[in-house]
Amino acid sequence: MDNHKTTENKPSFIAEARREQIMEAAIQTLDDIGFVNASLAQIAKRAGISTALISYHFADKFDLMNHVLMNLVERSSAYVLERVHQADTPTDKLNAFIVASLAYQGTHPARNTALIEIVFNARTTDNVPYYKLGEDEEEDPLLLELLNILREGQEKGEFAEFHTDAMAALIQGAIGEYMFNSSLTKKIDLETYSMELVKTVQRAAKR
C-alpha cells in the first residue's frame, strides 16, 4: 500500500518540482532583462526546457508572474517571521523584524529585483498596475505581524502611545525605500542602514 501511495504522489511531486524550476528561471530572467523583455522563450531558455512545457504548467506569462510574485512574498515572509518568532520581547521582535527584512534584501538581490519588476510592470486583468493596488492587512502576513508587535509593545508598556497603523506604515516604508531606491543603496551599505533604522524606530516607539 505504501508503494502505491508513493507512485500516486510521484507525478504531483515531479510537477511541483518543474513549476519551481520554471519560477526560478523566471526570477533569473527578471533579474537579467526585466519584466518587459521576459518572454516565455527567454524563461524557457534559462530553464533549459521548451516554451510548450511552461505553457503546460502556466496559462501565460501573467499567470506565471502571479505565481512568482506569490512565491517571492511567501519566501520573504517565512524568512522574516522565523527570526521574529525567536525573539521574546516586543522590542526584540521589532528589532528582529527590521533587521531580518533588510537582511533578506541583501542576501537575495535577484529575488528583490524580480519582485520590483513584477510590482511595477505587471497589471491585473482590469489593466490596473500592481503598485496601485491597496494591500489587504489580512492577506499580508508581515504587516499583520508588525501590527501585532506594536500592539503587544503598547499593551506591555514597552512602547509609547501612537497610531499603530501609522507606525507600521513608517517602518515598512523605510524598509521598502532601501529596496526600491538604488541611489540610496549606493550611499549607505545595508548594515549601516539597518542599524540606523533600528535606532530611529526605537527612539520613536519607546515609552
Summarize the structure in short.
Helix content is 77%, strand content 0%. It is an all-alpha fold. It folds into 2 domains: 1-58, Orthogonal Bundle (Arc Repressor Mutant, subunit A); 59-205, Tetracycline Repressor, domain 2 (Orthogonal Bundle), CATH 1.10.357.10.
Q: Indicate the overall shape.
A: elongated
Low-confidence stretches: 1-8
Radius of gyration, in Å, reads 20 Å
* CATH-scheme architecture of the largest domain: Orthogonal Bundle
- Helix share bin: over 70%
Structural write-up:
The protein has 207 residues and is mainly α. The protein folds into 2 domains: 1-58, Homeodomain-like (Arc Repressor Mutant, subunit A), CATH 1.10.10; 59-205, Tetracycline Repressor, domain 2, CATH 1.10.357.10. 77% of the residues lie in helices and 0% in strands. It has 10 helices and no strands. It has helices at 2-37, 40-47, 51-57, 61-84, 90-107, 109-121, 141-155, 164-180, 182-187, 190-205. Helix 2 crosses helix 3, helix 4 crosses helix 5 (90-107) and helix 8 runs antiparallel to helix 10. It is elongated, with a radius of gyration of 20 Å.
Provide key terms for this protein:
207 residues, mainly alpha, Arc Repressor Mutant, subunit A, Tetracycline Repressor, domain 2, 77% helix, 0% strand
Write the layout of secondary structure elements.
Elements: H1 2-37, H2 40-47, H3 51-57, H4 61-84, H5 90-107, H6 109-121, H7 141-155, H8 164-180, H9 182-187, H10 190-205
